[in-house]
Amino acid sequence: MTQPPSGSFLLNGRPAASDPEGLRALAQVNYGHFTALQVRGGRAQGMELHLARLGQGNAELFDAALDEAQVRAWMAQAAAEQGGDCSLRVAVFARGFDHRQPLRALQADVLVSATAPARPSGKAIRVRSVDFVRPFPHLKHVATFPLFQHRRLAMRDGYDDALFVDGTGADARVVEGTVWNIGFWDGRGITWPAGPALRGTAEQLLQAGLGTLGCMQQVRPVALGEVGDFAAAFAANASGVQRIAAIDTVEFAPSPELDALLASAAAHAPWEPLA
Q1: pTM for the structure as a whole
Q2: Do 182 and 195 touch, CB atoms closer than 8 A?
Q3: According to the model, what pLDDT value does residue 172 have?
Q4: Is 42 helix (H, G, I), strand (E, B) or coil?
Q5: What pLDDT is stored for residue 6 in this prediction?
């Protein structure tokens, strides 16, 4: 017998399994947005950023505001059912959405999923560049097929993940990873690639923490042909920070100095109650 998924799944505050109509709509219509975060002891970092992301997504996809207090209460409820430590995903969709009448006013549905907390592997990853820019890249929307397919193809060819670039050849601009942002270290400061990408909450929290530490930072276009000029590179998302060992044929040596700097920067963000 197939085992039910482990975790807590709340659809509009009720057990998701009790609302098959809502789950069917979520599965059949690929239109919605979400955020993902780590929760420890019923607290999370960057709550303002996550709620702002959800608010922006709802405004752009449904022309409507989101009940922030209600969403936070459901997040806290789901996390509490998992003992306060979990990976939390908040997905917003509308079961009444019809592509033939996309301007119709709708009531949003919110699915909160609380599953086992993510534990960074500590493994440095080798990534392959691929010419791809996500549609509507500033939104964390549910159109994830190309992200996962590019990652799958990269892994099939012996890499750990894919790095999206805008263009081809050495002049292509580095954009973002499949589900992560990328930063580069030159031995003195951090360079964040400018381009059409989702500005992740982890990236923003690191930037704030690095600023507090007085670390030099810049945001500018980074060409694929110049990545070898940097001493190190790293990936960042809600699951943590991961060292990048190689981009295509460019190898990066371990940098304990960078590891310590990023760990210190990440620790600056306070852990806030979900509700």
Answers
A1: 0.94
A2: no
A3: 98
A4: coil
A5: 84
**What token pair was written down for 31?**
């239109």
Per-residue tokens: 70: 């209600």
Rounded Cα distance between 149 and 196, Å, is: 19
Angle at 32 between CA 27 and CA 33, to 5 degrees: 125
- The rounded Cα 122 to chain-centroid distance in angstroms is 18
Helix or strand holding residue 159 (H, E):
none
Q: Rounded to an integer, what distance in angstroms lies between the CA atom of residue 146 and that of residue 134?
A: 8
Are the CB atoms for 12 and 19 separated by under 8 Å?
yes
Please state, in angstroms and as integers, the Cα–Cα distance from residue 139 to each residue in 110, 116, 124, 167, 197, following that order.
Answer: 17, 25, 27, 21, 9
CB 183 within 8 A of CB 206: yes
Residue 249's closest CA among 232, 234, 227, 233? 227
In Å, how far are 33, 60, 93, 169, 232 from 140, measured between CA atoms? 6, 11, 12, 28, 27
Spatial contact of 183 and 203, defined as CB atoms under 8 Å apart: yes
161: β partners? 127
pLDDT in tens, 78-123: 999 999 999 999 999 999 999 999 999 999 999 999 999 998 788 9
